[in-house]
Amino acid sequence: MFKTPKSRTAFIKTLATFAFILLPWLFAFIYVKYLKDDTQEHEISVTYSKSDNIQHVDHSKFEILKQKFESPQDVTEACLSCHNKTAEDIMNSSHWNWEKKDIMDGKEVVIGKKNLPNNFCIGIRSNEKLCSKCHAGYGWKDEHFNFSKSKNIDCLICHDNTGKYKKSSPGKPMQGSGLPEPDIDLSAIASHVGETTKENCGSCHFSGGGGNNVKHGDLESALTDKKISIRENAFATNEGIESQTQTGPVDVHMSVDGKNMNCTECHKTSHHNISGNMYTVSSSNENPVTCEQCHGASPHSQKILNTHYNTIACQTCHIPVYAKVNPTTVLWDWSTAGNQKKGSHSEEEGEMINDTQKIFHAKHGNMTKVKNAKPDYIWFNGNAHLHMFDDKITSDTVVMNKLYGSYEDHINPTDPLHPSKIYPVKIMRGKQPYDTENKTLIQPNNVGPKGSGAFWADFDKQKSFKIGMDSIGLPYSGKYDYINTESYWPLNHMVSSSENALSCKECHSRDGRLASLQGFYIPGRDRSNIVEYLGIILIIGSILGVLIHALIRFYSSKKK
Amino acid sequence: MKKQTYIYSSFERFWHWSQALLIFFLMLTGFEIHSSFELFGYENAVNWHNIASWTFLVLIIFAIFWHFTTGEWKQYRPSLKLVKEQFQYYVSGIFKGSPHPTHKTRYTKFNPLQRLIYLGLKLLVIPIQVITGFIYLSYLNPEHSITEGGLRTIAVFHTIGAFSLIAFVIAHIYLTTTGEKILTSIKAMITGWEVVDIDKKEEYLTNMRKAVENSTAGYYRINTEGKFVQVNNAWLLLYGYSNESEILGQHFSVTRTEDKVKDLKNIFDKVLTGKKVLAKHVVRKNKDGSLGYHILSANPIFENEKVIGMEGFIVDISSIEIDTLQMYNTVRSSSAGYYRINKDGYFEDVNDAWLKMYKCEDKNQVIGKHYSLSRKEEDMKELEEIVKHVMTGDIISGRIATRKCKDESQGKHLLSANPIYKKGEIVGMEGFIIDITE
């Protein structure tokens, strides 16, 4: 094989050279294919200590709680007889006041459910009898409610550990206005009070907007459902991208099949001031709850994932889908409310088709509910502008809570403490009445007995609007129309297990989840069309040129 | 003239093929990140693209180092000379079977077009990819980001670089087929060897260098102080030194016995005046003190028209010298008489036996005398006859002759005679006599 010893050495030398070239690739291949263990679970490091479960106080032993309580206020008095500083804390809280001081556009404002419109039931004023079903107090039925009367505090709604305490809705024989249902055994409940459970919180926060999961989309009774187990359902992600199958707990933190954590384990509470904001009723990032408070700012084992933290909120990847179990309302069209179709029922609830359900209620109008919904994404820096009832309408669509933030803000944040990141949101779309003359949203009066003019009793829009507008002290011209509204609901719950988090491709693809966020470059999503066309022309040109050249060479050599 | 030549060193081939593989891999992973296709999975593509780019960077650093330490960077010096011809060759000449307009040699591996393209690759496209790649990476840490808000620009340039590389690779691979045969160039890049033109100048220099290194003639170089500054292996061998440190810096006088130093000094002084010395027959003193014979040449070394030293070769003739000596001694101590006369008939040399036979005491009594002194008048004619024949080229042997000794007595001997040639001409006669008196 070798003519001379010299060519033998040369051959061996060449062989060695190529071994040097190829061996690293071979090692890399073997490592990736056979040695690297992807299945090894990454340990999640969490700075978190679960509060001990030792019951410090057994309330059933207190004589004062063993009495027969005539009224819920009596229970409160009994509580306050020991917790004699707590009333002050409660009466400073937004759970009591339904408003708080906040900063909006640099100015101090007082905002809350008390004075803000929304695009579900629109507003609480003149409807307090029903709305105060979720008020941590007793007797708020109109503007005359005394917010400084401590015995009106409802301790039980948050501290009942029996699960039997329920507040009533208005109407005979019930009283509404935040009072409990009349047949409740207050004594039994009073002697079984304790730390707040997620059932307590959920009794209001799961059912905002008049039903389970209607408002938030990521907060609902499935999170406390003991029957919920590892679930499996496919949900469509991007078009063209395979459906992903979601397995694992509804929420890795909260749900019973997850860590079964209590709300207050994240929503740290001091003096009944509970941390966390919902930007439909808050305009700044005061006293927030963050993922980082337990997970830190670099929780991933892969650096490239940690560096995404600078631009991407944790929730964006880790909440790939919301309304995982029960549907949430995404559209509420009040314009058809009151339309009693002839020969048909006043309520029509369609089938759930492709995770979408159309509903018509004569009381509410048309609604659309969705399940396993893909979030929308926005740049958000923790500050918001909330539309108030007396704000003039200047556009076709009223944004109820404009969430501030942009890509530029991320690069050069105006507020360095709150640089923008991309967050997942549920967008709630509404069509609701407004005063075409005064250019303001209308507060209707929906709740009241027949003959009072309340819409849900008499279906008289003019009367309802007039009563409602009077209640908030704004003029009503008598002329109304319907206007599109939008509200943004940042998603923080229903965190999926890490293997269900968004894959790179979900955003790093031509029509990925972030397709609507423009003005900045995402690798894999964006490209310069000119460069792309010229590049393809260059490649095709090169190949054609080479082929033609080769053909001419071939034929001209054949001729010879 | 063409010759099988080692034109791509091991490192160059290692670098080339590793770079080729890395560029392919970066291309595949890069365009997957660009969402042009799916292959490894996006996450893998990103991670592997990063690893490959760091590897590439290390390779580039090594390659830069290699280019400068070996001087191979000179291969990429751009030149517009013959660019047109090279281009014309590719667009027409190649079809007609015209010869390549440029010659590929060990020292000009690349034609002018290649030089321009490769230089562009090294100074433009790859740096763009590396720099934009780094800025790209910096975007993962926006607080440390080099530019603000310009990822699009960076990414677009990175993409332009990538497309350029693809076009380069296509053309590059195709152009490898335009060598002597389709696979000639690729084979060369694999084995390192290719039949290429010889660069006459470089070849000459190499050959000269090798000639001096490998010659059996000794080479020396002496500075103006008369000290050795360079010798070759053959020189060391002849003088019996084991390595050059033993001789470098020494004065040339150590290479001669005391009586011969002056001769060398004369040669040295003459050379320092700018003259050349042709072959001189000299006796050297070896390291161990023994003597040796060699032919010496010497010439001045000029620098800026000034003599800065002397150099030359020595060719050993010790063995020839010894042969001659033995022969000389044989003749000298022989019992046969030896004589030599020039063409005019005068004695040039005789040996001791001759003197004894002629009863002479001393050589000087004979040298320079005419041969007529060796005969009586009556025998003279015979000798004259012999001389006449030999001077025309005849060889005489076994002739009985009667000699006239110095004391006028006579003796008989057998005589041989043959002509002596020098440069083809007969310049004299020599021969032996064997005594047959009684």
What would your notes on this structure say?
The complex is a heterodimer of chains A (560) and B (438). With 560 residues, chain A is an alpha+beta fold. Chain A has a domain at 525-555. Chain A has 17 helices and 19 strands. Chain A has helices at residues 5-35, 72-82, 86-91, 94-97, 128-131, 156-159, 186-190, 198-205, 263-266, 292-295, 303-308, 314-318, 407-411, 455-458, 461-471, 504-507, 529-559, and strands at residues 100-104, 107-111, 170-171, 174-175, 231-235, 244-248, 269-270, 273-274, 328-333, 347-349, 356-361, 365-370, 376-380, 384-386, 397-399, 401-403, 421-435, 440-441, 480-490. Chain A is globular and about 115 Å long. Chain A starts with a helix and ends with a helix. Mean pLDDT of chain A is 87; it is low at 232-243. Chain B has 438 residues and is of the alpha+beta class. Chain B folds into 3 domains: 2-200, Fumarate Reductase Cytochrome B subunit (Up-down Bundle), CATH 1.20.950; 215-317, PAS domain (Beta-Lactamase, 2-Layer Sandwich); 334-435, PAS domain (Beta-Lactamase, 2-Layer Sandwich). Helix content of chain B is 46%, strand content 22%. In chain B, the strands form 3 sheets. Chain B has a 5-stranded antiparallel sheet. In chain B, strands 9-8-12-11-10 form a 5-stranded antiparallel sheet. In chain B, strands 1-2 form a two-stranded antiparallel sheet. In chain B, helix 1 (10-33) runs antiparallel to helix 2 and helix 4 (112-138) runs antiparallel to helix 5. The longest helix of chain B has 29 residues, at 42-70. Chain B is elongated. The model of chain B has no long low-confidence stretch (mean pLDDT 88). Chains A and B meet through helix 1, helix 11, helix 13 and helix 17 of A and helix 1, helix 2, helix 3 and helix 5 of B.
